[in-house]
Amino acid sequence: MKWMVVALLALVTPSLFGQIETVPATQDSVVPPEPIIPTGIVAAKIDTVTKYHPTKSPGLAMLYSALLPGSGQAYNESYWKVPIVVGFGVYFASMWLHNNRLYQDYRDKYIASITPENPDGIQSLQTLREFYRDQRDTFTWYFFILYFLNIADAYVDASLYDFNVGDDLSIRLMPETGTRLTL
Questions:
Q1: pTM given for the model
Q2: Taking phi first (over 0 means left), then psi (-120 to 50 degrees means alpha), and beta for anything else, what does residue 140 get?
Q3: CA distance 149 to 182
Q4: Helix orientation angle between 123-159 and 58-67, rounded to the nearest 10 degrees
Q5: Among 74, 94, 76, which Cα is nearest to 143's?
Q6: pLDDT tens digits for 69-120?
Q7: Rounded to whole angstroms, how far apart are CA atoms 110 and 105?
Q8: Number of other residues whose CB lies within 10 A of the CB of residue 142
Q9: pLDDT digits (tens, 9 = 90+) for 129-145
């Protein structure tokens, strides 16, 4: 394996660090000669990179979603996501309230079932109390997961707001020749 790495480096290194050859200048020439540029991967032209200014602010989208879940999606103009976030939020909150109410009812019934004759109380009431407490705690986790996914979705959506999804999905394999691979 080591010999393959050494062979690859021996083949690639001279072309990466080679100098550009120039034509020797004559006394009669007024214009300096053009350098001879080697061909291949090293000679690929580097496109000019312009500074990117996003249309939507990811930080502002996160702030909106943190303050009011779904508002970051509205800021990003992903209106179809707002009812999904709000719907799951309302569902999780209502299920939390429902399970908390049942937990409190069965807790009170279990406490009332503890008597001097039966110091352990009715076990079925204790089991139901624990079941509804676990359900309430589970919906608490669901609500927090939804809350943080809402913020993460607003951030990603704002970051990719200007992403161009066109019909042209081709890439250039060889920058000099213009050969393209099209999907």
A1: 0.61
A2: alpha
A3: 35
A4: 150
A5: 94
A6: 999 999 999 999 999 999 999 999 999 999 999 999 999 999 999 988 888 8
A7: 9
A8: 17
A9: 999 999 999 999 999 99
d(Cα 9, Cα 160) in Å, to the nearest integer? 38
Handedness of CA 52, 55, 59, 61 (dihedral sign): negative
3-class DSSP state of 171: strand
3-state secondary structure 103-119: HHHHHHHHHHHCCCCCC
Could you tell me if residue 38 is left (phi over 0), alpha (psi between -120 and 50 degrees) or otherwise beta? beta
What pLDDT does residue 125 have? 93
pLDDT in tens, 16-28: 455 555 555 555 5
Q: Position of tokens 């509804």?
A: 132
Strands (E) located in the chain: 171-174, 179-181
Parallel/antiparallel/unpaired status of strands 171-174 and 179-181: antiparallel
